[in-house]
């Protein structure tokens, strides 16, 4: 599975300022939906675009936009997506980052911005994937265009680095995207991505859940499965399996296994053993949230098995970090400073 888009509105990302947005609103940069374009559609601003587009003739300084990451963390790749912008895409772009308190004004002249992507020529109507080698934790990004022009989306892929102070002494949704949970693997994603299982919001329709193709090899143990890892090991207290909006095609049953191990550079998730019983095979109700109290210590990841196929909207695992887990989180926080 891919890294988390830390800038997405799904996790609370927002575009807080821009030099100009004459043709396309800045907020579209972090829209989780894929960009779309209908040629020949006009409004009072001109041709309607699905992205951020500035007026012509920005001057020697170019245009810029500032994005507050919804989930602060380490970045690996920034995608400056110029799809559907061909004759009006920016010539080049650079990316800066900073770490601020949430109430600090990121446009203030005193803010210390750090370049994390040097000025790079952009391709028109394309994903422009820009690598980031700086391993610090960031809260804000600044996209600097060398010129004027249009950008459809800004994706900031990386890993969430939770604040250990927010995990101390409280129960946390350790599987959640905002807390560093990750969908590492799934058996099938024919209709929709398994990544939606750990989204922080409630599903609004069936398309916002995980739905597999219809299996024809049905037997007593036939199932689809998904692996969800946590930022650090946790003592689990509750598991929720949500089948909202899956009325006629929800999974019939589910079981959950845990692991006290993690994948490493030599062995992927396919080599990790899931041998800790978390939730026995249980019948599911369609179109409903189902909550199960549990007491399972020291779990690092879950394997959710859906029998025999079908759809699940969300999986939520709540717990408290283990003592070792909290120390891991504190070390990671310190390493990112």
TrEMBL record:
The keyword Hydrolase applies. Pathway: Nitrogen metabolism; (S)-allantoin degradation; (S)-ureidoglycolate from allantoate (aminidohydrolase route): step 1/1. It is an enzyme of class 3 (hydrolase). Its EC number is 3.5.3.4. GO terms for biological process: allantoin catabolic process; purine nucleobase metabolic process. Keywords: Hydrolase, Purine metabolism. GO terms for molecular function: allantoicase activity. Residues 12-160, 180-320 form the Allantoicase domain. SUPFAM superfamilies: Galactose-binding domain-like (SSF49785). It catalyses: allantoate + H2O = (S)-ureidoglycolate + urea. HAMAP family: Allantoicase. Belongs to the allantoicase family. NCBIfam families: allantoicase (TIGR02961). This is Probable allantoicase. It comes from Mycolicibacterium brisbanense.
């Amino acid at each position: 599975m891919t890294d988390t888009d830390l800038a997405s509105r799904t996790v609370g990302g927002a575009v807080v300022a821009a030099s100009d947005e004459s043709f396309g609103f800045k907020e579209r940069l972090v829209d989780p939906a894929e960009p779309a374009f209908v040629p020949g559609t006009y409004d009072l601003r001109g041709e309607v675009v699905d992205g951020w587009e500035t007026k012509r003739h920005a001057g020697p300084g170019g245009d810029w936009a500032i994005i507050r990451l919804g989930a602060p963390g380490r970045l690996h790749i920034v995608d400056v997506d110029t799809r559907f912008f061909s004759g009006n895409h920016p010539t080049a772009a650079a990316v800066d980052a900073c770490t601020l308190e949430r109430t600090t004004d990121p446009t203030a002249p005193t803010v210390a911005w750090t370049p994390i992507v040097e000025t790079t020529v952009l391709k028109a109507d394309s994903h422009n994937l820009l690598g980031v080698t700086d391993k610090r934790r960031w809260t804000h990004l600044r996209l600097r265009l060398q010129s004027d022009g249009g950008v459809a989306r800004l994706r900031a892929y990386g890993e969430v680095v939770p604040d250990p102070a927010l995990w101390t002494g409280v129960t946390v949704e350790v599987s959640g995207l905002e807390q560093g949970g990750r969908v590492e693997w799934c058996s099938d994603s024919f209709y929709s991505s398994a990544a939606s299982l750990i989204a922080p919001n409630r599903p609004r329709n069936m398309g916002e859940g995980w739905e597999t193709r219809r299996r024809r090899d049905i037997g007593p143990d036939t199932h689809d499965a998904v692996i969800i890892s946590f930022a650090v090991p946790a003592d689990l207290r509750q598991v929720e399996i949500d089948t909202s909006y899956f009325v006629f095609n929800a999974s019939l049953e589910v079981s959950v296994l845990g692991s006290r191990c993690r994948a490493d550079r030599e062995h992927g998730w396919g080599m990790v053993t899931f041998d800790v019983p978390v939730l026995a095979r249980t019948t599911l109700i369609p179109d409903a949230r189902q909550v199960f109290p549990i007491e399972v210590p020291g779990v690092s990841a879950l394997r959710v098995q859906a029998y025999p196929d079908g759809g699940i909207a969300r999986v939520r695992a709540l717990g408290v970090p283990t003592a070792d887990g909290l120390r891991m989180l504190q070390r990671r926080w310190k390493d990112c400073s």
